[in-house]
Amino acid sequence: MLKQHLQELQLQTTPFYVYNIDLLRQTLQNASAEAAKYNYHVHYALKANANAPILAEMLQAGFGADCVSGNEVKCAIENGFKPEHVVFAGVGKSDEEINYALEQDIFCFNCESSHELEVLNELATAKGTKARIALRINPNVNANTHKYITTGLEENKFGINAWELESVLDLLKTLENIELIGIHFHIGSQITDLNVFKNLCTRVNEFQEWFIARNITLQHINVGGGLGVDYYNPDANLIPDFAAYFGLFNQFLELRPGQQVHFELGRALVAQCGTLISKVLYIKKGISTNFAILDAGMTELIRPALYQSYHKIENLTSDKQEERYDVVGPICESSDCFGKAVMLPETNRGDLVAIRTAGAYGEVMASGYNLRDRVNAIYL
Ligand code: LLP
């Protein structure tokens, strides 16, 4: 698809992100059709990519918004999401952020500690309003993913641990301006082994029993996001297996009558539709390999430097014989490397390089380190 649009890509100033809106639509249609089979509600996790044209597609697909900062809540609402379709999670919500979300009367705060509940109650009381909340519970389920994106183990900072729940319930009885409407879980990201979600369902079912034993009926269960994508074969696996994913929850989650299930997908919806395009600046001989030095670096896409993550790299403009390259950026850090010993057709100054599967946690994590310019985006 990128090669078909080569002329258009060559006209742009590099580096830039290119988003394939057709593919995004197909992905969202598939996800929403599979979710609709079980009447599941999806909130799109804005943290993966908050560009307005992407948000417009999410809205069109009927998804709500999962936000982790006041600015994300604001961004969602300004881009047309109804406050009643917005949820707000995060371990460190500031008073200003909470106040803003209270004023917008968002659907639900996903609360992560008893201290946060006390502050939320205070702020809601001062405003003469009530906050709807879900308790984010840390289920201690291993997501089998990179440790930096594992969130559901007791050692992680996220959620309320099981042994604290009894005291949190006691506290909630004293907080008059808080209404408990659900429970929330999110165990990690880039989860490719679906069995992990089966384990999550087992834990969720246990927590449900626990609440029922205390005469608490929950309106919704939010199982978070985390479905992974295939970074290695983006062309073969353009659309994640949403049928298997939602089907698994349908098979293993035990619901009470009238209870809704909410999901917070980010990566699986947007990763494959985005590519970072960069130009080769220089070729430099190293000891064992050549360096292809790009004009994009970790400032535009930090995932390889931060998580040692793999992104497929392609040379869009050369079809010569393959050689081995370390593909690196211009930033003053040795971790500024997109891939080591990558086989690419003979690469020269001026060639266009595509770094695939970069639609999620790419542009949003860009930084101004080394006083770099903001990265541009185009939509095809
Ligand atoms: N819900 C909560 C509470 C989350 O913390 C996250 C992601 C999501 C939903 C969406 O998860 P997803 O469906 O996208 O896996 N920067 C990292 C990923 C960090 C994910 C943080 N939380 C990366 O580039 O891999």
UniProtKB/TrEMBL annotation:
<dbReference type="GO" id="GO:0008836">
    <property type="term" value="F:diaminopimelate decarboxylase activity"/>
</dbReference>
<comment type="pathway">
    <text>Amino-acid biosynthesis; L-lysine biosynthesis via DAP pathway; L-lysine from DL-2,6-diaminopimelate: step 1/1.</text>
</comment>
<dbReference type="GO" id="GO:0009089">
    <property type="term" value="P:lysine biosynthetic process via diaminopimelate"/>
</dbReference>
<keyword id="KW-0457">Lysine biosynthesis</keyword>
<keyword id="KW-0456">Lyase</keyword>
<comment type="function">
    <text>Specifically catalyzes the decarboxylation of meso-diaminopimelate (meso-DAP) to L-lysine.</text>
</comment>
<dbReference type="GO" id="GO:0030170">
    <property type="term" value="F:pyridoxal phosphate binding"/>
</dbReference>
<feature type="binding site">
    <location>
        <position position="303"/>
    </location>
    <ligand>
        <name>substrate</name>
    </ligand>
</feature>
<comment type="similarity">
    <text>Belongs to the Orn/Lys/Arg decarboxylase class-II family. LysA subfamily.</text>
</comment>
<feature type="binding site">
    <location>
        <position position="361"/>
    </location>
    <ligand>
        <name>pyridoxal 5'-phosphate</name>
    </ligand>
</feature>
<comment type="subunit">
    <text>Homodimer.</text>
</comment>
<dbReference type="InterPro" id="IPR002986">
    <property type="entry name" value="DAP_deCOOHase_LysA"/>
</dbReference>
<feature type="binding site">
    <location>
        <position position="267"/>
    </location>
    <ligand>
        <name>substrate</name>
    </ligand>
</feature>
<keyword id="KW-0028">Amino-acid biosynthesis</keyword>
<dbReference type="InterPro" id="IPR029066">
    <property type="entry name" value="PLP-binding_barrel"/>
</dbReference>
<dbReference type="InterPro" id="IPR000183">
    <property type="entry name" value="Orn/DAP/Arg_de-COase"/>
</dbReference>
<protein>
    <recommendedName>
        <fullName>Diaminopimelate decarboxylase</fullName>
        <ecNumber>4.1.1.20</ecNumber>
    </recommendedName>
</protein>
<feature type="binding site">
    <location>
        <position position="333"/>
    </location>
    <ligand>
        <name>substrate</name>
    </ligand>
</feature>
<feature type="binding site">
    <location>
        <position position="226"/>
    </location>
    <ligand>
        <name>pyridoxal 5'-phosphate</name>
    </ligand>
</feature>
<feature type="domain" description="Orn/DAP/Arg decarboxylase 2 N-terminal">
    <location>
        <begin position="32"/>
        <end position="271"/>
    </location>
</feature>
<keyword id="KW-0663">Pyridoxal phosphate</keyword>
<keyword id="KW-0210">Decarboxylase</keyword>
<dbReference type="InterPro" id="IPR022644">
    <property type="entry name" value="De-COase2_N"/>
</dbReference>
<dbReference type="Pfam" id="PF02784">
    <property type="entry name" value="Orn_Arg_deC_N"/>
</dbReference>
<dbReference type="InterPro" id="IPR022643">
    <property type="entry name" value="De-COase2_C"/>
</dbReference>
<feature type="binding site">
    <location>
        <begin position="264"/>
        <end position="267"/>
    </location>
    <ligand>
        <name>pyridoxal 5'-phosphate</name>
    </ligand>
</feature>
<dbReference type="Pfam" id="PF00278">
    <property type="entry name" value="Orn_DAP_Arg_deC"/>
</dbReference>
<dbReference type="InterPro" id="IPR022657">
    <property type="entry name" value="De-COase2_CS"/>
</dbReference>
<feature type="binding site">
    <location>
        <position position="361"/>
    </location>
    <ligand>
        <name>substrate</name>
    </ligand>
</feature>
<feature type="modified residue" description="N6-(pyridoxal phosphate)lysine">
    <location>
        <position position="47"/>
    </location>
</feature>
<feature type="binding site">
    <location>
        <position position="307"/>
    </location>
    <ligand>
        <name>substrate</name>
    </ligand>
</feature>
<dbReference type="InterPro" id="IPR022653">
    <property type="entry name" value="De-COase2_pyr-phos_BS"/>
</dbReference>
<dbReference type="InterPro" id="IPR009006">
    <property type="entry name" value="Ala_racemase/Decarboxylase_C"/>
</dbReference>
<feature type="active site" description="Proton donor">
    <location>
        <position position="332"/>
    </location>
</feature>
<feature type="domain" description="Orn/DAP/Arg decarboxylase 2 C-terminal">
    <location>
        <begin position="16"/>
        <end position="359"/>
    </location>
</feature>
